User: What shape does this take?
Amino acid sequence: MGNTVLEKVRALLPAVAERARATDEEGRVPEETVRELTDAGVFRMLQPRPFGGQEADPVDFYEVVRALSAACCSTGWITSVLGVHPWQLGLFAAEAQAEVWGDDPDALISSAYAPVGRLTPVDGGYRLTGRWSFSSGCRYARWALLGALVVGDKGRPVDFLTVLVPRSGYRIEDAWDVVGLRGTASHDIIVEQAFVPEHRIIRNYEQAQLKGPGQQVNPGPLYRLPFAAVFTSAVTAPLVGAVAGGYESYIRLMQERARLSLGGGRFAEDPHTQVAVARAASEIDATILQMDRNIRELTACAAEGRDIPAELRLRTRRDQVRGTERAVAAIDLLFKTAGGNSLRRGNPIERAWRDAHAGSVHVANDVERTLAMYGRVALGLTVEDNLV
Assistant: This one.
């Protein structure tokens, strides 16, 4: 079966592209766009079937994200982030999934995974307090996934959890005024002494071991994939899509432009322009091919009931961070060789350049640390990291 959601999304792309500049300038994706994407089924692609989802191939999901991001990276980013959370919720206890989707299968979930929250054990669960930054698309969500530490008697962390909190349990504070990904509205979330029942937590260590209570009701291979692969790919996919969109804009621009100095002539006939096109196209293609290959191999392991090798998990992370690096390198090259026109605020090349650089600083794109982990294992050493 083909990617039917992609077919629906393609029909929306002209409108998404038309709204891209306003999205960037106003600092939010229009409600109309979110409704259209909801109706197209984008946010249900990785959602469990028992709760109204599609359990789609994650490769298809990332393809949809890239297509949207080529038209508007802020739209693609919140689609990717809000769209990957249903996958993680599928690992939570069935009771938590029913609370979120029982009355509304289209309910959205935002996140802020930094372990800045503090959890105090109480009867039946925990009390949570904290303030989290960078919760993309949080104003469209009815729930939030938040990172938090359980603190022991001596004030030291004893456990690292991800907790699920309803919209009534937190407030949002506008704090998003940035140079790139401006339309993602990645505001702050503040929680003050909210009660989190035991069924609304998942331990990060268990998740790294590919375990979760939700697997009892969601036994499909999708829910036996590593969080580090599924989530970090959802961070890189929008950046690759944005750069692919910038590349297409560059091609159109250079086919039309003529030099006004340095002897004149068409930019399309300039060997430097031609080489830039070839290099950028190769970087984009290499990223997509590697990332899709890795996700397919991970899914095949899970579908066949085989253990996922550490080497494959590390390779997936290696290629994901290198994918972000490649995307940034490609748009840097295009931005530089597009000339003065690329400096005009709001043009697609300039916006893709800002968005790719903004997304590259996400913690999932910690290139040196991730490549060092791969290198350690390749050299016969060991690593311990929940982002593998």
